Amino acid sequence: MAVVQGDERDKAAAASGRRSRGHPLLRGWKRDQYTHGMHPAQMEALRAMCGALIPSLPAEVDGHGRGDPPGGKDLDRFYNASAADSIIPDEVAELMVTRCIREAVVLAWVVLWVLSTRVGTLLLCGRLCVSGEFPYVRKFSDMPLAQREAALQRWNKVRWMFPLRIAFAIVKILCHYVFYAMVNENSENPYWKAIGYNVEEPAREERTESPPRSRPLDVGVVETRLLNDNALLRSLVGRGVTVKPSDDDACHTVQCDAVIVGSGCGGGVAAAVLASAGYKVVVVEKGDYFTAEDYSSIEGPSMERLFERGGVFCTSNVTTMIFTGATVGGGSAVNWSACIRTPETVTREWAVEHGLPVFGSPGYAEAMDTVCARLGLTDRCREEGFQNKVVRRGCEALGLKADAVPRNSSEGHFCGSCNFGCPTGDKRGTDTTWLVDAVSRGAVILTGCKAQRFLFETNSYNNRSKKKCVGLLATCSGDGGIVKKLIRIEAKVSIAACGALMTPPLLRNSGLKNRHIGRNLHLHPVSMAWGYFPPENKVITGKCYEGGIITSMHRVTDRTIVETPALGPGAFAAMVPWESGRDMKERMRRYARTAHAFALVRDRGDGFVDGEGRVRFTPSREDVEELRHGLRQVLRILVAAGAAEVGTHRSDGLRMRGR
């Protein structure tokens, strides 16, 4: 009985064609209906904004000589396309309402209402909306493209119009992300060929020809999203979980020794250690379970299903984007493969300055050795990808040291899409290591199951503490987030391992009042720069999305390092500066040969987790200065590597000619 559920799931997925390119949830972009609730007048204004951000244009050579001459139907389709067409504005509205923080949504909502009127448009656009014909003042959607574009350029640059800048930033980010990340029923985007992007199928015959195999965690995983009430009970009992009789049809009560919230780096290791010691462990994971055969490497649906808030997670001031995993394996399933041991300078600081001697003990070093061994870390890379070649070549030209970065994959692993789950199965996260150890020793993993609060009762055995934790209350939800069932998990030990962003809200929902909950958040902020290497440059070959994501690193100071990111076309377009519709399309035409590198700082300042999906974070002055210093070094490295043009992500689009 333990494997029946996984077999049935695989057969259904194979029948629907999953093996051709991943699981259906990770290869398509489809909504049955839109729930954003925007008024038609607001949608008209939003459609006009999207059309100005990504307009239909003739394919001609850029006036600054940065573009390529037109040619071919793919380029013609790309330049003729407008974000005002099709369902893109509705997708933007849906993401805005469901992913952005409440204050940002209200701000954008108000701006769109104002722009839907002539008086409001006059207030925000000035003389740009004035016409020589009656009624003399146009609302935003009636303005010519050139005037709408000029208005957006003004909002992007004028500092005193901060609310408009925020609204512009939200629409700009979401519009470009949807335009380049959205795929059709065939997992294709019509503009990828024009920008030199493609998603390759891993060279493995079993994805198309072999029968479905049992998955590594099938013996212990219970996919609650796929099960009705009776099937859920049978799966729990079949995996050795004690289910208590209950008069409440809406809630099941189960018993175990330890319940762990989260299946990532912390939860996965804890589950393996406790299960190996003979304890009955239940892991609660709100995300779904996917394997190497499921991963599609397609940006849009992969971000939606594998990341917190669908990958659209920003701080309250909309200045910092945060990527955090929300699937079985947590961040280890979607990280960039870099596995760097805690530096001795840091462990010494924690042990001496912060009074935490455990980090300076042999036991901590042995623990790191154990983790590295289980993940199969390798210190070398047989062949580096385009971006890491750029960093290494630039460092060598400047006489700087470029260190090899240990990875939890083989030396020959040449995968540029591990951030969407490794489709080759070479990368080893907790979902293929520690959790496998855990389920082989009787642990159970509940997927699609979200922790609501820990359960407390009066502690009659210890007068020093009034309450003790006796378990967890969780909800199982189906598609659309509709709650199907409550599960009360009674346990002797309860562990919160859902990360720095999700643990504080869980603790507060549980009634804990400690003022430090959610504080002292450190994000290791980054600042990016880019360099364009024309295809004629044969010294550094490849494309920005090919090869290992992080294989080279330069240490600028003891608090700042330089590394390379993974940016699909949607993330790339969302992050790079927008100056005009044509300039943005020319930037995207150069996507494949634009290398990005970033300066990462170990921040001194701290942030605050204000609630679920709400993070307040502003780097300190010292951190900002460190970022500036690191960014200058990144630009030097890119120029030294031979970039024809370099720039940063400043909103004004500042760029410089290279060699």
From TrEMBL:
Record keywords: FAD, Flavoprotein, Membrane, Oxidoreductase
Reaction it catalyzes: a long-chain primary fatty alcohol + O2 = a long-chain fatty aldehyde + H2O2
Domain FAD-dependent oxidoreductase 2 FAD-binding: residue ranges: 257-290
GO molecular function terms attached to this record: flavin adenine dinucleotide binding; long-chain-alcohol oxidase activity
Top enzyme category: oxidoreductase
Ranges where the Glucose-methanol-choline oxidoreductase N-terminal domain occurs: 303-526
Residues binding FAD: 256-271
EC number per UniProt: 1.1.3.20
GO cellular component, one term: membrane
One Pfam family it belongs to: FAD_binding_2
InterPro entries assigned to the protein according to its UniProt record, in alphabetical order: FAD-dep_OxRdtase_2_FAD-bd, FAD/NAD-bd_sf, GMC_OxRdtase_N, Long_Oxdase
Location of the protein in the cell: Membrane
Similarity comment text for this entry: Belongs to the GMC oxidoreductase family.
PANTHER family reported for this sequence: LONG-CHAIN-ALCOHOL OXIDASE, OS10G0474800 PROTEIN
Name of this chain's protein: Long-chain-alcohol oxidase
Species this chain originates from: Eleusine coracana subsp. coracana
